[in-house]
Write a structure and sequence with these properties.
The strands form two sheets. A six-stranded mixed beta sheet has the order 1-2-3-4-5-6, sandwiched between helices. A six-stranded antiparallel beta sheet has the order 7-8-9-10-12-11. Helix content is 41%, strand content 19%. Strand 8 and strand 9 form a beta hairpin. Helix 1 crosses helix 4. It has 370 residues and is of the alpha+beta class. The protein starts with a helix and ends with a helix. It contains eleven helices and twelve strands.
């Protein structure tokens, strides 16, 4: 990890030097990509470990074929430094190269940003994007350099040997598939599911339609109505013409891991008190509140989530390494505690702090009504 951190620090200096230059593909590889691969344990001078211009079955070549036991396990296609990496043809090309060669993983990179694709997913090439990581601090705002290094470490030589990417890919893509299946099952439950639930309940007075209605109430959030204290303050009417946003505003073009992080935190927050927790999609972040009290705000980045909680950092007992005090730092969301969440394990760990923010602000809301 220390080697990767040192490499990121050096490459950030180079990035500042070359950011505005029209750096072509070859110097991008020499200045940025080769040093990063070396730091990750890949010997780019050994063709048994990192074969350059690896011939594909269609007679073309991929820039790097990283190997374990002389067998390719990861393809990398390089682009010039200023390439935005959004070209569908380029994404499809490298994904196809890897899939046709029986290689499960591939990366499209401009030397600063690395986009990691799982080729075996049954989806369009862009939707096979698992995660992305960048040496550019502008793309990883709020994340520590240790967190950035850990994301790069997912495709180190040692990590590939331990099949770390396989484990992450199976977790994220399978979770997304199960979530989609549950949406379908619970929103339009088949008779077999309804019968199974009625049988498990063991109460013949519960009718099939009641089960269907209950499933929809439990799985889908009902229309939310403002919950006001017994003595509500004067509420200003909403501004005329205020633009409304949707989830797509925050998930479009994002990696599957980040999308799953957002959807997990979304469902968890809404279920803290169904029907009373309010969600609103704003331009830069998603806001969650109980009554008028905001307790959680989420900004979706390409490499993870930045979560703001309405807590006093000094009151936290043993705050995790991914938390920081932003009471004196400008940020979009409401709250003085910021969490940098880049994987499901951290999100699971952070639920305690999110619950604390909810409880404290819910209590303030309830007290306001007494």
């Amino acid at each position: 990890m220390t080697t990767v951190i040192s490499c990121i620090e050096r490459l950030r200096v180079e990035l500042d030097r070359h950011r505005k230059r029209d750096l072509k593909e070859y110097p991008t590889r020499v200045i940025f990509i080769d040093p990063m691969l070396e730091a990750l344990g890949w010997d780019v001078r050994d063709p048994d470990e990192a074969e350059l211009e690896y011939a594909t079955i269609d007679g073309r070549s991929v820039d790097y074929a990283l190997k374990l036991n002389r067998k390719p396990v990861l393809f990398i296609e390089a682009k010039p430094l200023r390439d935005p990496l959004g070209d569908i043809k380029s994404i499809t090309q490298v994904v196809s190269y890897a899939a046709n060669a029986g290689v499960d993983w591939c990366i499209l990179t401009n030397g600063a940003t690395y986009k990691v694709y799982r080729t075996t997913e049954k989806a369009e090439a862009p939707d096979k994007l698992l995660f992305e990581v960048s040496i550019d601090p502008k793309e990883t705002a709020g994340m520590s350099i240790q967190q950035v290094a850990a994301l790069f470490g997912r495709f180190s030589s040692d990590a590939m040997a331990e099949r770390v990417l396989d484990g992450i890919g199976e977790q994220i893509f399978t979770t997304a598939k199960v979530r989609k299946a549950l949406d379908k099952l619970f929103m339009a439950p088949p008779n077999t599911l309804v019968r199974l639930i009625r049988s498990t309940i063991g109460d013949d007075t519960v009718k099939p339609q009641q089960v269907r209605d209950a499933l929809q109430r439990l799985w889908a959030q009902p229309p939310q109505v403002p919950i006001t204290p017994p003595h509500p303050p004067t509420v200003k009417p909403p501004k005329v013409g205020r633009k409304e946003y949707t989830e797509e505003r925050h998930t479009e073009g994002k990696p599957q891991e980040v999308i799953e992080l957002l959807r997990t935190i979304d469902k968890w927050c809404l279920e803290l008190e169904p029907g009373r927790v309010q969600r609103r999609y704003l331009s830069k972040y998603v806001r969650y509140s109980h009554g008028k009290n905001i307790f959680c705000c989420v900004h979706v980045q390409k490499s993870g989530l930045r979560v703001w909680l309405k807590l006093d950092f000094s009151d936290l007992e043993s705050p995790p390494e991914y938390a920081r005090d932003v009471s004196r730092i400008g940020h979009w969301g409401v709250g003085d505690v910021e969490l940098a969440i880049d994987n499901l394990d951290k999100l699971q760990d952070a639920k305690g702090l999110m619950r604390q923010s909810f409880d404290e602000n819910r209590q303030s809301f309830m007290q306001a009504g007494t």
